[in-house]
Amino acid sequence: MPESQAASIWNRAFALLYLAEFLGYAQHFVLQPTFPLYITSLGGTPFIVGLVIASFGVTSVISRPIIGYWADRWSITGVMILGLLKKPPASAGPYFERVTSFTKT
């Protein structure tokens, strides 16, 4: 019997997905070490810095089951497109909102 060659996963769609995931994680890991410096420069205490860093984990724990449910029930592609559409406004938000809650008065 002739052996059938398995299709490679390295196609255009996979490469784009890989690039999008890589850039999303890169953004997260570039921001994570700078948050303590930024928050303390605004006058935040170490406790506030801890709350901000912990909020990333809490948000992830809460949102991943919900997003997984949506992906299972609706469409994986649709959920990914919604995430892609949500990312630019969420990333640009701090540029349009002046953060004043951590400043010393």
Question: If you had to describe this structure to a student in words, what would you say it looks like?
Answer:
This protein is mainly α. It has one domain. It is built from 4 helices and no strands. The chain has helices at 12-31, 34-41, 46-73, 76-96. Helix 2 (34-41) packs across helix 3.
- The H/E string reads HHHH
The helix content, as a percent range, equals over 70%
How much strand content do the residues show?
Answer: under 5%
Q: With helices defined by DSSP (H or I, 4 residues minimum), what is the helix count?
A: 4
Which radius of gyration do the C-alpha atoms yield?
A: 19 Å
Q: Main beta sheet, described?
A: none
Task: Sum up the overall morphology in one term.
Answer: elongated
- Taken together, the total number of domains comes to 1
Spans where pLDDT lies below 50 across 5 or more residues: none
Q: How many beta-strand segments? A: 0
C-alpha termini separation = 80 Å
| Overall mean pLDDT | 82
- Going by helix content, strand content and strand pairing, the class is mainly alpha
